[in-house]
Write a structure and sequence with these properties.
Elements (H helix, E strand, L loop, with lengths): L4 H14 L11 H11 L4 H17 L13 H12 L4 H19 L2 H4 L23 E3 L7 E10 L3 H12 L4 E4 L14 H8 L38 H11 L5 H15 L2 E2 L2 H4 L1 H13 L3 E3 L1 E2 L22 H4 L1 H6 L3 E4 L2 E8 L2 E7 L5 E11 L6 H7 L16 E7 L14 E3 L7 E5 L4 H7 L5 H7 L5 E8 L6 E4 L5 E4 L4 H20 L4 E3 L8 E2 L44 E2 L2 E6 L14 H20 L1
Parallel strand pairs: 1-7, 2-3, 2-10, 3-7, 10-20
Antiparallel strand pairs: 4-6, 5-12, 8-9, 9-10, 11-14, 11-17, 12-13, 13-14, 15-16, 17-18, 19-20
């Protein structure tokens, strides 16, 4: 996307002021903006328009000095104006600044020329030709030239993330005819190479820029392609906690016992080859977290993951460069294909028609090529954001459909140590602090790549560059909240889901506790400075760490948050008034439609839900296979 000349000049002026040269790192400028323009080609047009609007706001700031554009000011004056914008008391203004600088940081620090001069390790992706598995003949890419397709099946599955892929593996192994429909592509190893910007464009829905709307904008990235979000998660493989299952039974009347779900949890863990990572792969993250946790008297330990043979390149969230991570595109979809299933990629579902006799699903590619599937049953597994909209288009009406959205809001801080950490040479989420998990706070590593560290740091100018040139001594670590706040999903422009979510007072109090603990944890682990995601608190020196948040009552607008686990928008249960699907995950008003994704999870569970989603999907698929085979 070629930006208007004035907007382009403004972005160049911002890059020159906010991304100066350091001892090793080159300055931002025209090449930065050229890279950003290339990235905008992969985004919805609205993002480019929003960026242009932000540049107009930046130019308006120049009127303070009697100039009509930011580019007409000296670099020092530009920096002072941008700094005033960064620290503005108005949340909307600061959000605009983060959009502007986030794009420039990603473009500049994500370029290979800059990364090669930075204190970081570049990912190593094997691009050697791989033999084509026999089951690839059962994969049809609708994005390629060809005719329309018509087929019949026992079950059609919409979506190949955690739940859809698990259901496909079970149903195909049971001898049923299974057709999978996936809107994204089936990514090859070569797709996990290149800059982070390029990989985000390939692997993330809306290039990872999806956010909630409410009293705070929470970044809510999801995956795009076969494997869904499992392809871009950190590989953490935790079971649903027993206290969560107990609350489902006692508070929500969901009769799911530990003994009933146990065999499905075990089956999923075998599929994914879940194990605890060795200390060598966890690196210094484990050492400093253990030291800090011991000082705080909190339990800690390595986290179980689905990545046997991991070589700790720290790239998990942009596609595993070696294939070690057993995401759904590796561990589940190929197994379903090997059992005879079919897969259509590039297939966005247009319509779902259903009656007592079966289901008819029609999907098409961007070029208009169509596939129509007639099946006895359908599994909707498009994720907690898209599934409610698909069900509504299929004529499903329920007062809870699209509501009850939980997201696990998360906060992360960057800490500077006086010794090497090398977070990009370790597992990003290899070590956790468990002592507050039952209270709703799970701490786990969030080790970030060089360019993402730049984005996470709410700094610019010389101080940003000074810190980035010590990237080998930085650690990004964070936590998520088992939220009690609830949002909803509505249909937005172009039929895309829009998540609405307000962070409530109880969860803000949890955030306060989490941030205090996080700062203290890092300092007791040896950090000299912590950079928390709190407005007005850019840096916390070790000497004041224990009192940095004293007397402060956080508001939602004070925080920079992300979330990675949308759940609950088509919840399961036994009460027809409160649950969209029953305990077999069948839609109440359409028993030949099932939902097998995070939308059925009735409450927030407090951590990565992939194991829970897969276990519930496998259980529902077993029951569906029995019904269809009976």
């Amino acid at each position: 996307m070629r930006l208007p000349e004035r907007a382009r000049d403004c972005l160049i002026a911002c890059a020159e002021a906010s991304l100066p040269a350091g001892a090793k790192l080159p300055a931002g400028g025209e090449p930065t903006v050229a890279t950003l323009e290339e990235a905008l080609d992969h985004l919805p047009r609205g993002v480019g328009r929003a960026l242009v609007g932000v540049t107009r706001a930046a130019d308006l700031l120049a009127l303070r000095y009697g100039r009509t554009s930011l580019a007409q000011l000296s670099v020092s004056r530009r920096f002072r104006l941008l700094e005033a914008w960064r620290t503005a008391p108005w949340y909307a203004a600061r959000a605009g600044f983060r959009l502007l600088l986030g794009g420039l940081k990603a473009a500049h620090y994500g370029s290979r020329d800059v990364a090669e001069r930075a204190p970081c390790r570049l990912p190593m992706v094997s691009l050697a030709p791989e033999p084509t598995p026999r089951w690839m003949s059962q994969v049809v890419d609708l994005a390629r030239a060809g005719g329309d397709e018509d087929c019949e099946a026992d079950v059609v599955i919409i979506g190949t993330g955690a739940g859809g892929a698990a259901a496909a593996r079970v149903l195909a192994a049971a001898g049923l005819a299974v057709v999978m429909l996936e809107e994204g592509a089936f990514h090859a190893r070569a797709d996990f190479a290149g800059s982070v910007l390029a990989r985000i464009a390939r692997l993330y829905s809306r290039m990872g820029m999806q956010t909630t709307l409410g009293n705070v904008s929470v970044l809510l990235p999801t995956g795009k392609g076969v494997g869904g979000t499992t392809t871009i998660n950190a590989g953490t493989a935790l079971r649903v906690p027993p206290w969560v299952l107990r609350s489902w039974r006692e508070e929500h009347g969901i009769p799911l016992s530990d003994a009933e779900i146990e065999p499905y949890l075990e089956r999923v863990e075998r599929w994914l080859e879940v194990s605890v990572s060795p200390a060598a792969m966890i690196g210094m993250q484990g050492v400093v977290v253990a030291r800090g946790a011991d000082a705080l008297g909190l339990a800690h330990g390595p986290l179980p993951r689905n990545a046997p043979g991991c070589d700790a390149q720290g790239q998990c969230c942009f596609g595993c460069p070696t294939g070690a991570k057993r995401s759904a595109d590796v561990a589940l979809v190929p197994a379903a294909l090997a059992s005879g299933a079919m897969l259509f990629t590039g297939a966005r579902v247009d319509s779902i028609a259903h009656d007592h006799a079966g289901v008819r699903v029609e999907a098409r590619s961007g070029s208009g090529r169509t596939v129509r599937v007639q099946a006895r049953a359908a599994v909707v597994a498009a994720g907690s954001l898209a599934t409610p909209l698909l069900l509504a288009r299929a004529g499903i009406a329920h007062p809870m459909l699209g509501k009850n959205l939980s997201i696990h809001p998360a906060a992360a801080a960057v800490a500077l140590f006086p010794f090497d950490i090398r977070q990009d040479e370790a597992i990003p989420q290899g070590y956790g602090l468990h002592g507050l998990s039952e209270r709703g706070l799970l701490f786990e590593g969030g080790g970030t790549t060089f360019e993402l560290t730049a984005i996470v740091l709410n700094l610019h100018g010389p101080r940003l560059v000074e810190i980035l040139e010590q990237h080998h001594r930085l650690l990004t670590y964070g936590f998520n909240v088992r939220d009690t706040s609830r949002g909803r999903v509505v249909r937005g422009p172009g039929g895309r889901p829009v998540p609405l979510y307000n962070l409530g007072r109880a969860d803000l109090d949890q955030m306060h506790l989490g941030l205090r603990t996080l700062i203290d944890l890092m300092v007791r682990g040896g950090a000299t400075t912590v950079f928390p995601p709190v407005h007005g608190l850019d840096e916390v020196p070790a000497g004041i760490a224990g009192h940095a948040l004293d007397g402060r009552r956080l508001a939602a607008r004070d925080l920079d948050l992300s979330a990675h686990h949308p759940l609950g928008t088509a919840r399961m249960g036994t009460d027809p008034r409160k649950s969209v699907v029953d305990m077999s995950l069948r839609v109440r008003s359409a028993p030949n439609l099932l939902v097998c994704d995070g939308s059925v999870i009735p409450t927030s569970i407090g951590h990565n839900p992939q194991i829970t989603i897969m276990a519930l999907a496998a259980r529902a698929a077993d029951q569906l296979a029995d019904r269809l085979s009976g």
